[in-house]
Design a protein that fits this description.
The structure holds 2 protein chains of 2 kinds. By secondary structure, chain A is α+β, with helices and mostly antiparallel strands. Chain A has 2 helices and 6 strands. In chain A, strand 1, helix 2 and strand 2 form a beta-alpha-beta unit. Chain B is an alpha/beta fold. A 7-stranded parallel sheet of chain B has the order 4-3-5-2-6-7-8, with helices on both faces. In chain B, helix 3 links the parallel strand 3 and strand 4. The chains are: A alpha+beta, B alpha/beta. At the A-B interface, helix 1 and strand 6 of A face strand 1 and helix 6 of B. Strand 6 of chain A pairs antiparallel with strand 1 of chain B.
């Protein structure tokens, strides 16, 4: 959810950083989005590209690395991934349960990030 | 002969570690510190549209009879309806209109608290925007998170919204007096909630009639 406002934040940060560093044109940006960040990557990419239009970042590549979820189950002690099916169109209905014992009592250690990692630009 | 060639464009990298979701968490921590310094117990009241958030807060305030020792931040897209309803109980109230945001965030609470006189306040209720999806993802810095759903929303609200119920310290099943005409099983809703969150206090209420309110007050750690 909130793909639009997060994309807006990302674009503001990119343009701000490029200006600060005297960049003239943005070639690409690198994002890291966690599997459990509840963000649709396609939508985020779409909005960023849209918002880049008319700026020094127009046409820039938006690269996204997905951070796999890592959880610790408080019920059975399982520690590891959630084996989320990447092809499942209903991924947004992730139940947040332990893949081993199906308990909802889990601690999410990794997978909820939304990081702007790197900008490649020209000056 | 010296030949000066124009310097070509240089490709360079800007390395950042900008965590875009961190800002709300940081502001939430700041809010919490502020509440702790002023010895205010802050409660984030979340729930679906029309579940009874305002009625619940009103009923609790009425029962506690704290007057100006209680404060409320009422959140909604527009209108001051909730704030006006609560003012009648004598508490200090401020209405936050989010405009288009579907949830309150730590920044809005930070601003609201700036505008309120909170000296002498023991408890602050933050009534979130009616929404079982987004508020769960945006901690406000409250000490307790209460989520209310009512039987008039049907039997599936809990199973369909596991994230927010997982984050709750107190789960309230409201309008229990309407379970029969709605043909909704309160025990099934309780089981659904227990499965997602075995640790939360689980209370059935009839906010308009006052039923279950003392238990909610106890679960929140409030005293008269």
């Amino acid at each position: 959810m909130h793909e639009f406002s997060i994309s807006d934040e990302i674009v503001k940060n990119v343009l701000g950083a490029v200006k600060e560093n005297n960049g003239k044109k943005v070639l690409s940006i690198q994002l890291e989005i966690g599997e459990l960040a509840l963000l649709n990557v396609e939508q985020v990419t779409f909005w960023i590209r849209e918002m880049f239009k008319g700026s020094v970042a127009e046409g820039a590549k938006v690269k996204v690395r997905t951070i796999k979820a890592r959880i610790k189950c408080e019920s059975c002690g399982y520690r590891g991934g959630m084996n989320l099916d990447q092809q499942d169109p209903f991924r947004h209905a992730i139940p947040y349960s332990c893949p081993k014992c199906q308990s909802f009592q889990i601690d999410v250690e990794k997978g909820r990030e939304c990081h702007l990692k790197k900008i490649q630009a020209l000056r | 002969m010296k030949i000066v060639r124009p310097k070509g464009p240089e490709i360079f990298d800007i390395e950042l570690e900008k965590d875009l979701l961190a800002k709300n968490r940081e502001l939430a921590k700041e809010n919490r510190k502020r509440f702790d310094r002023s010895k205010i117990l802050a409660v984030d009241v979340m729930g679906s549209i029309g579940s009874g958030k305002t009625s619940l807060i009103k009923a609790i305030l009425k029962r506690l009879g704290m007057g100006k020792r209680a404060a409320v931040i009422a959140g909604d897209l527009t209108t001051t309806i909730d704030a006006e309803r609560i003012e009648a109980e004598g508490a200090r109230v401020i209405q936050v209109n989010t405009g288009k945001e579907c949830h309150l965030d730590a920044h809005l609470i930070h601003q609201a608290v700036d505008r309120m006189k909170l000296d002498g306040v023991d408890v602050l209720f933050i009534e979130n925007v009616g929404n079982l999806i987004c508020p769960g993802e945006f901690p406000l810095g409250a000490h307790k998170r209460l989520v209310v759903t009512s039987v008039t929303e049907g039997p599936y609200t809990v199973v369909k919204h596991p994230y927010i119920f997982r984050e709750a310290d107190v789960i309230v099943l409201n309008k229990m007096d309407m379970a029969k005409p709605m043909r909704v099983s309160l025990s099934k809703l309780e089981r659904d909630a227990r499965q997602i969150n075995p640790r939360a206090s689980l209370i059935k209420t009839n906010a308009l009639g006052g039923g279950g309110i003392p238990k909610v007050i106890e679960a929140l750690g409030l005293k008269r």
